[in-house]
Structures are given as structure tokens and as C-alpha cells.
């Protein structure tokens, strides 16, 4: 079984990496980009029967800093 966890900074939290990407895109001539938020995707190979609650615990304890980040989980 696979899980994909998408982690993004919460709205209102400054995203310096996203701002650097936005600036770089503008420098390359992509003028229509008004904002960029950068995040991360974590793919997990899990044993069959691993519950979504277990993946949520992983996120809460290690994979995401829940003070400033939000996350979503996809199970396949």
C-alpha cells in the first residue's frame, strides 16, 4: 500500500522559498505569476492494512510541523 502526504505552509505563514520562485519566474519573463506557495510531497510504502489514522499520527509527530503547516493524505 502507498500513501502520499502533501505538506504546505498554512495561509498567512510567510513562504520565502515560494517568493524566491515567484521572483525567479518573473526574471525569466513569466510576468503573470502573482504568488507561489512551495510545499513537499512525501511518498510512503506501507504494509497492507496500515490505517489512515497511523499515517495521520506520522504526520502529526514527524512529517509536518502542524503549527505552521497543513497536510493532506492520499492512500492507494
TrEMBL record:
SUPFAM superfamilies under this entry? PurS-like (SSF82697)
GO CC annotations, alphabetized: cytoplasm
Q: Which reaction does it catalyse?
A: N(2)-formyl-N(1)-(5-phospho-beta-D-ribosyl)glycinamide + L-glutamine + ATP + H2O = 2-formamido-N(1)-(5-O-phospho-beta-D-ribosyl)acetamidine + L-glutamate + ADP + phosphate + H(+)
User: What are this entry's molecular-function GO terms?
Assistant: ATP binding; phosphoribosylformylglycinamidine synthase activity
Where can this protein be found?
Cytoplasm
Name any one Pfam family assigned in the record: PurS
Q: What class of enzyme is it?
A: ligase
Q: Kindly state which keywords UniProt assigns to this record, in alphabetical order.
A: ATP-binding, Cytoplasm, Ligase, Nucleotide-binding, Purine biosynthesis
UniProt KW Magnesium keyword: no
This enzyme's EC code(s): 6.3.5.3
The pathway entry for this protein reads as: Purine metabolism; IMP biosynthesis via de novo pathway; 5-amino-1-(5-phospho-D-ribosyl)imidazole from N(2)-formyl-N(1)-(5-phospho-D-ribosyl)glycinamide: step 1/2
Concerning its family, UniProt says: Belongs to the PurS family.
Summary of the function given for this chain in its UniProt record = Part of the phosphoribosylformylglycinamidine synthase complex involved in the purines biosynthetic pathway. Catalyzes the ATP-dependent conversion of formylglycinamide ribonucleotide (FGAR) and glutamine to yield formylglycinamidine ribonucleotide (FGAM) and glutamate. The FGAM synthase complex is composed of three subunits. PurQ produces an ammonia molecule by converting glutamine to glutamate. PurL transfers the ammonia molecule to FGAR to form FGAM in an ATP-dependent manner.
Do you know which HAMAP family this protein is assigned to? PurS (MF_01926)
What name goes with this protein?
Phosphoribosylformylglycinamidine synthase subunit PurS
Q: Which organism is it from?
A: Thalassovita gelatinovora (Thalassobius gelatinovorus)
Amino acid at each position: 500500500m502507498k500513501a502520499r502526504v502533501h505538506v504546505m505552509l498554512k495561509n498567512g505563514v510567510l513562504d520565502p522559498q515560494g517568493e524566491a520562485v515567484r521572483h525567479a519566474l518573473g526574471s525569466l519573463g513569466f510576468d503573470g505569476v502573482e504568488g507561489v506557495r512551495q510545499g513537499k510531497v512525501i511518498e510512503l510504502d506501507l504494509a497492507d492494512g496500515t490505517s489512515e489514522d497511523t499515517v495521520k499520527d506520522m504526520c502529526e509527530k514527524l512529517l509536518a510541523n502542524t503549527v505552521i503547516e497543513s497536510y493532506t493524505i492520499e492512500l492507494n
